[in-house]
Amino acid sequence: MKKLFFPLILLVFITELAGQTTAQQLQKAYSLFEKDEQLKHAISSLYVIDAKTGEVVFDKNSQLGLAPASTQKIITSVTAFELLGKEYRYQTKFGYQGKISGKRLYGRIFILPGADPTLGTWRYESTRESKVLAGLLGSIKKLNIDTADYLLYIDDSRFADSRIPDGWIWQDIGNYYGAGAGALNWRENQYDLVLSSGSRIGDPVEIKLIKPYIYGDHEMISELKSASKGSGDNAYIYLPLGHQPSVVRGTIPVNENSFTISGAWVDPAEEFRQRVLDTLQKTGLIALFDVKNINQGGQEFVPITKDNAVLFHTVFSPTLDSLIYWFNKKSINLYGEALLKTFSLEQKGIGSTDSGVAIVKKFWKGKGIDEDELNIYDGSGLSPLNRVTTHAQVEILKYAKTKDWFPSFLQSLPEYNGMTMKSGTISDVKGFCGYHKAKDGKEYIFSFLVNNYSGKTSPLVQKMFKVLDELK
């Protein structure tokens, strides 16, 4: 017994010593990190726990609220798995009100959107634009009508008006990553601009092509200039104020003939509606409808209810776990904003960002996280107003690890520096949070946020990785 007892005590001692060594190594690396010139006017936080025991390995400023950038997506993702379930699917419904007599519809065909952020996206075979339009047109054919009083009314009454959350900046919201979520989203609410630059630095840049075609009277002006070769994409689209045109400002490299940037539609719901009408016309089906009545202006309509409407077509999104995969892998802000509104729609009956935020905070308060640790304004982290603690992020990641849907969530997280973690970047903000299994078998959960650093992001990232390397 004595022979067995002594090795057991020695094993426990060695295990504790290894844990202390990791903590000490982190402390040493973090102290050097804080002294770096890039951190002179910055504030940072690192919180690390043992994934199996929950024991705190390292803690610096874990109760301090910092802008999380896209690391906030892990909060929205885990909340979505819990509130909606991994098999949840969005639905976009099409129906008609009125009466069909002979081949005439005395009434209107309507769209009942559900804020599906994947409608028309190229990321899934089932959601591609061609598939969505073909399915809808097939269902319209089956109605067997040749006249309708009104075509494609969009009922957005279940959603709050604003697509853009508080705090999003003007430089962001005209670009693809700043596409807000509405009642009806289409092709991730984005379009492409194809640009052509000059051969000399300072030459003007021409807009060659907008694809897909933007419907309606939408003027766009280029104030772009040509910059040095290899300078990259520094072009930003500014949405119009009032009746002003959109303006593209910044630079792209010289000698580019087809340089493509992506923007955010002003009204994606109307783009979808007009795309359907255009497709009907090009396929000959437009003859089935009274084209004099396809405009919404001035129409008085009876609210849509189960008793006065007939549904004839539904478009289903991929399951939530698939949506979360792209949400985190490609950091698609639109998906996060749609999810927030979906929480509100499912629980309150109306899709609202503010209500969705309140639901997120209430949910995690019920799990023991102080709601003031989640001072959030959106679902994606794009708003610079957000303030989140590293403690809260780690607690949420720890909670996720106990759930049966965890493998799907883990699969959605990218890999950086040989570690499974979500990154986040906005102006002067960088963050990483996630999981790592060390060579000795130890598993860690961590969150690392830096705000107000100076200089370029790339060298800062390498310095953050150097600190996180102590977990390997």
In words, what does this structure look like?
This protein is α+β, with helices and mostly antiparallel strands and 472 residues long. The chain folds into 3 domains: 24-87 and 322-471, DD-peptidase/beta-lactamase superfamily (Beta-lactamase), CATH 3.40.710; 91-160 and 270-318, D-tyrosyl-trna(Tyr) Deacylase, Chain: A (3-Layer(bba) Sandwich); 187-264, no CATH class. Helices cover 31% and strands 25% of the residues. The strands form 5 sheets. Strands 2-1-19-18-17-16 form a 6-stranded antiparallel sheet, with helices on both faces. A hairpin with a 2-residue loop joins β3 and β4. The two termini are 36 Å apart.
Total number of distinct structural domains: 3
Strand content: 25-35%
Radius of gyration: 26 Å
Helices and strands, in N-to-C order? HEEHEEHEHEEEEEEEHEHHHEEHHEEEEH
What is the approximate shape? globular
CATH architecture of the largest domain: 3-Layer(aba) Sandwich
The spatial strand order of the largest sheet comes to: 2-1-19-18-17-16
CATH class of the largest domain: Alpha Beta
What about the largest sheet? 6 strands, antiparallel
Distance between the termini: 36 Å
What are the segments in which pLDDT stays under 50 over at least 5 consecutive residues?
Answer: 10-14
Oligomer: single chain
Query: Would you tell me which CATH topology of the largest domain applies?
Result: Beta-lactamase
